[in-house]
Amino acid sequence: MIEIEGITKRYDATTVVDDVSMVIEPRTIAVIVGTSGSGKTTLLRMINRLVEPTAGVIKLDGADNRSLPGYELRRSIGYAIQGHGLFPHRTVAQNIATVPVLLGWDKARIKARVDELMTLYQLDPQAFGPRYPHELSGGQQQRVGVARALAAEPNVLLMDEPFGALDPIIRNKAQEDLLAIQKRFGTTIILVTHDMEEAVHMGDKIAVMDAGKLVQYAKPAEILARPASAFVESLVGASEKPFRLLSLGRVRDAVEKGGAEGEAIPGDASQRDALAELLWSGRPALPVKGADGKPLGRVTVDGLVKRAARPA
Amino acid sequence: MTIRFDKLGVVIAVIVAYAAFAAPFATFRANRIVPGEARSILDALPAVTGPLLLAIVLIAALIALLKTPLILRLAASVAALAALALLIGVAGSFLTPEGNTFARISPASGFWLLIFAFTLLLADVLTRLNLSPGARIGVLVVATAAIGLLLVSGSWNSLSILKEYANRADSFWAEGSKHVTLALGSLAAAVIAGLPLGILCHRVEKLRAGVLNVLNIIQTIPSIALFGLLIAPLGWVATHVPGAASLGIRGIGTAPAFVALFLYSLLPVVANTVVGLAGVPRAANDAARGMGMTERQRLFGVEFPLAFPVILTGIRIVLVQNIGLATIAALIGGGGFGVFVFQGVGQTAMDLVLLGAIPTVALAFAAAIILDAVIEMTSTKRREAQPA
Ligand SMILES: Nc1ncnc2c1ncn2[C@@H]1O[C@H](COP(=O)(O)OP(=O)(O)O)[C@@H](O)[C@H]1O
Ligand SMILES: [Mg+2]
């Protein structure tokens, strides 16, 4: 659990983060969204004390984050910096091993962990371990950056626009990978982005920042249904709202009784994808199948349209 | 078929044609200070060897002139240089009258131009071959060994420079080692003092401009003036600080030369350290702190290795500069190869000047090649990561 209490950061006269309070539950993903310059990075960097707050307290599992020296605190918190920030003079394997080496793990344990993470991220340890960062594609560099942040098995992972520089297809893949890893290790993640789509997709809760202030902190559905201000509303994008709302739900939860013609859609797919498929193929209904391939029922245009309406 | 010319080859061919036919190959002097008489290639070499050398340099020049394969150009330049190196020795013995120990034979402008032309060709070939740093050092070692072999074999002993050497063999090596000690010692001192100073300037912005300006001003003081400025303070130290005099600290001699070279060396070391550290990608520094490195770990684990090639470039500048500048030390009794240069100038004995100048140039050249290779080796792996 991360408790941020009345955190403020001022540089001379300008207040960059203004009295922000929020609680991030363990094993959840909190996404901080906001326009560029709204103070997202600064807020994130106050959690691992790369930036010292002017006022306020941040507690990690109940303990003030100032109870340890900064460098020790930072070794216990994963940090994926904006634009990956890999060390150009170190190989991929050495980059990933950074924090375990600082923590003094023994060689065998470090090697096992590096190999495990590289395999997890579909980078062959033999082929990619000895390479230098400049020899990798952008997507690979980004994965190495996240693998490095995860190396010492931190409970908390801070990520600053980790997918910002990726093209859409690789970005989707990276998002899915991160969700899978978060489920598997139960890491608490705070992710900064300026992309509302990403926020709705990834976040258990979304924190919207504007000019240093936290203007709304709520579940994605709540943000979509009841934006706290005109600013949040504009960030959500009025014309996108129904589709973003649908993207939060799984087809499985919108199943109706009965059957339909054509190829079945998996129950795990998002309701938004199902609606898109229905509209595109011009059909009124689609069959739905479970993970085991058994038919679950059908989704209909009418049913999905009702779900896309503003919640009561 | 159209004949295609190599651009550099045209220059080389012109130089070779002039040097082979219009310029003297060797100079004959009755003793070491009278003006010399010029000898052409055909006059300076016995029977067959003269035309042979002419044929070799002309064929090599033709190979340089036309667009030919690199390997052929390499062979041509090496063959021409080897022939010149061997035959100048032959010319020496051939031109020296039997039993005459006063006569002096020295290479003349034609010889030096030919050496220059084919070194140019060789350098061009080596550049185009794009040799790895290790291979470049290998070439240097082979060239040094070949020259060493010629020297030891005695085939150049009839040349005037080596006659000057023979008269001063002991002092040559003593001054040589003084020269190297002076150049390397002041470099080491400059690195020991300059690196921390550079780090300090990088971290403390307020210091930076001030320190660099002072070092810049020192660089602009002419060396003679700097020696002069140092005489008084060092003399004072020698008389007032106990033990200083016994360490060899005096107003003239090695101490002021050492201090002057040290002061000249500081700017390149400090400036390159500052530039190198400033060039470390922000993201790498940020990541280092974010991963939990201490300031020390970040300095030695990230900043230093990334700035290293730039710092090494500064060290290269200093080393080459110091090897050259150490010559001046002789002016205030600091020793070094400069001793021969200034003696030679005083006696108008050009060969003696060359005895000091040639080893100095060779040392500087070798230092440049070695350090360039080291810089390349350290920087290839450290190329900056492309942004994602
Ligand atoms: N070290 C600093 N000194 C002065 N101003 C800063 C510093 N760091 C950030 N800022 C300012 O704080 C504001 C918020 O920055 P940041 O937290 O990076 O925003 P975001 O990540 O949301 O784009 C910006 O206007 C930025 O210029
Ligand atoms: Mg930012």
From TrEMBL, chain A:
InterPro entries: AAA+_ATPase, ABC_transporter-like_ATP-bd, ABC_transporter-like_CS, P-loop_NTPase. GO terms for biological process: quaternary ammonium group transport. SUPFAM superfamilies: P-loop containing nucleoside triphosphate hydrolases. One of its GO terms (molecular function) is ATP binding. Keywords: ATP-binding, Nucleotide-binding, Transport. Residues 2-236 form the ABC transporter domain. Belongs to the ABC transporter superfamily. This is Amino acid ABC transporter ATP-binding protein.
UniProtKB/TrEMBL annotation, chain B:
Residues 176-371 form the ABC transmembrane type-1 domain. InterPro entries: ABC_transp_perm/SBD (IPR051204), MetI-like (IPR000515), MetI-like_sf (IPR035906). One of its GO terms (biological process) is glycine betaine transport. The keyword Transport applies. It is a multi-pass membrane protein. Belongs to the binding-protein-dependent transport system permease family. This is ABC transporter permease.
